[in-house]
Amino acid sequence: MTAPLTITVNGQPRTVAASPWRRLLDVLREDLGLTGTKEGCGEGECGACTVLLDGAPVCSCLVVAGQADGRAVTTVEGLADGPLLHAVQRELVARGGAQCGICTPGIAVCAAAVVDGGACRGGDARAQVRELLAGNICRCTGYQLIVDAIVAAAADVERGQP
Amino acid sequence: MSAPSGPVGRSLPRVDGVAKVTGAARYLDDLPLAGVHHGVTVRSTIAHGTFDGLDLDPAFDWSQVVVVTADRLAWGAGLAAGGFGENYVAMIDRDQPALVPPGGRIKHVAEPLALIAAPTKALALAARAACTPRQTARPAVLTIDDALRADVALYGDDNVFKQFLIRKGHADDDEFDLAMVAAAQIIEGTYHTGAQEQMYIEPQAMAAWKDGAVHVAGSMQCPYYVHKALKVLLGCEADDVVVAQTVTGGGFGGKEEYPSMLAAHCVMLTAAVGAPVKMVYERDEDIAATTKRHPARVRHRLGLDADGAIVAIDVDVVFDGGAYLTLSPVVLSRGVLHAAGPYRAPVVRVRGRAVATNHPPHGAFRGFGAPQTTFAYERQIDKAARALGVAPWAYRTRHALRPGDTTATGQRLEHSVGTDEILAAIAKVAGPPPARTGENAHGAPVVRGRGYAFYFHGAGFTGSGEQRLAGKARVVARADGTVAVLASSTDMGQGAITIFAQLAADALGLPPSAIVVPDPATDVVPDSGPTVASRTAMVVGGLVERAATALRARVEAWAAGAGVAGDFTARATAMIAAGVGLDAHGALGETVQYEPPPGIHWDDATYTGQAYPCFGWAGCLVDVEVDRDTHQVAITRCVHAVDVGKAINPVIVAGQIEGGTVQALGWAVLESVRYKDGKVTNASMTNCIVPTFGDVPDLETIIVECPYPYGPHGAKGVGEIPMDGPAAAVANALEDALGVAFDHVPILPEDIARALAGAS
Ligand code: FES
Ligand code: FES
Questions:
Q1: Residue-averaged pLDDT of chain B
Q2: Contact (CB<8Å) B696/A143
Q3: Residue B340 contacts residue B455 (beta carbons within 8 Å)
Q4: Shared-domain flag, residues B637 and B747
Q5: Which of A116, B160, B244, B348 has its CA at 20 to 30 Å from residue B640's CA atom?
Q6: Given this model, what pLDDT does residue B596 score?
Q7: Could you give all domains of chain A from N- to C-terminal order, each with its CATH number?
Q8: Chain B residue whose CA is closest to A40
Q9: What does each C-alpha distance from B498 to A60, B287, B314, B348, B575 come to in angstroms?
Q10: Is the shortest distance between the CB of A140 and ligand 2 below 6 Å?
């Protein structure tokens, strides 16, 4: 029996008695009940499983739980501040950036990290979104309305609007 | 567009938006199911042959594992006697077994042979690895030509699932030949389009449990298709099985027929285990086993007179239907009905066949047969313009169908013909074509070109389909002041529940927030027909609007008599409290059934008449840039103008158009499903690729509204038409850029290299 893992999930320290070799995705979904993180491929291609590990986007299907031990994980459930949505979430709803929604948690998490980090502003904002989000596949939207939403969210963040 | 007064025509945020961006929306795999077992499928590895039996590794611990083969089940006994009905996934035909029984015939790779359930998915997968099916291979049918030769019979003795013949302006082949011989020139081509994977990001997922009735819930487009299939499989009555859709992570046609297979498997395992069972496919399995767009071969001849007008069109369409019939006849029907294109032609002959092969069954995918034939005719029209020395858009402008013209089936177009609006919309924004040569952003030398396509798409079911289907919808006022819209149409991301709320709210004079649209379950909602064929807004939306209008009239009549004032909610709540006009369940509701618009005549025997209640129209302009060194194609501009009748929610409509556009661009230059010996050899997202954020340019979407008089507020279909034409526009742009013809999709860099080597 290995020692339990300690992971700070969405700001709360959590202790999980899970094998360090299990996928972070499964530990989040099965052990912690955080089913907002989705599995679309299990091989690092679709980005539906994206979470933030110490603030950086990773595919949680490619990360073993042991790698998250002692570190901070943010999932889609941790983006909003209570009922107050993150700018990325709010703009995705307002601008039609979510259709079936299965890609949306991964896109929201990745985009939140990107816009909070100050990217996707200025004249080439749309090109930046296309490059920085290239690891997240959406089959429904054709991407246009998601790009609109993320650029708008980056502007909101720049203005200091939550 | 004038400013809307009510909720219709406004881009209200989708009602399920917040749940989707916060992760609160529960898809099948997210739902807690106490004591659930995990099901997996043992599949064939040969394309054709016999299933001789299943070997279980004696070294494996089978104590917690249940294995089901078809010979272990009591077929014919029926559910009431603790058994099953018939071992078929019933669709149009009953030719596809739910499980191939030992001794039975295997007809494709990845065909289900046995089922396994275990308390954990890991154990179920380990058990599957400890199973070996014994199989004896036979010669397989892997091409359209082999199927038509019929040396190996897979379906009947000719391998033809279904054929159609459309004749316009001639009585027989001799007369047709006379018309074609009179042409001043004939443009001729053979076009091949490949299989395409829907690649919904939520894989197929289903669960079943027993609780009095047999319950099935999962990711699906058509709860009543699943319901119908399970009645046959279980040998039971309608009330014995309840099918519910859960939040569905994309469908695009891929969750039209295949979910019935998972439902059958979950039900079989649940009976064997005595506990709930869920099945969630792995991505590789989903790609390898489930339906895809039909590969097609289309031979097309255009006879032109000296002025370039079309005197005769001759089309021969063959679709590879795969191993079982599934929905191929219906897909083929739509393919042939669109094959002559939206152009004037006095004489048309279209022959279509769907043939059986040993590929996994091909099936529904957005566009439903029309993208394959649209690719052919829009390449042909481009070649005709080129041969005549006429600008491609000008040629289309001259010969496209207008009101008063007739289609290939003799349907006279009267209303809602968007041709001129579409042609003008594209011409207005087109601007000058890109510079022929130059450098791309990375400094590599490129060649550029521009291509166009113009097309139409019949909205709703073909011919008398809607009448036969007789879809229903119900609107119910509830004591808590809310109004529920009950319809079996599913929301798989396309926004159905939001537009239903908008339509009902508009008819009732309420805010959309007063409307709830419960998840469709067969014990709650009436059968509105399947969520397919671009029919949800136009047909079912129309039913919702009518039911709401009827309910409002009834409530207002009562309120006027009873002297009750206030809005609909106040009056309906008072009427419910007074106990007036309630149905057996104590609800105040109205159910309406589909009624065809006046003057619809369709003859199924001759394939003549009004094939569709109306058509959507679209035009596409694509600019491409080809890297001269790598032959990589970049789509640098894509303008798509689509006539949707009326955009009930413009942002949702734009999202539909853009999503379809990118699937079409992907089909044109990226998306390739490779078969070898009947097996998909690229069954993973790593090499069965679809467009990413970086593969497509910003899209220029133009919504055109030529109202359909019998649709709600004028709305007609939008879901499929964006898939039909962009691939032809890309191929036309590549011919413009490179001077060589590309008559197939996908057009990959190696195809371009080969074509250029051949041309030089
Ligand atoms: S599930 Fe992790 S990238 Fe697709
Ligand atoms: S919204 Fe469906 S995959 Fe992105």
A1: 96
A2: yes
A3: no
A4: yes
A5: B348
A6: 86
A7: 5-78 (3.10.20.30), 87-158 (1.10.150.120)
A8: B201
A9: 32, 31, 43, 41, 27
A10: yes
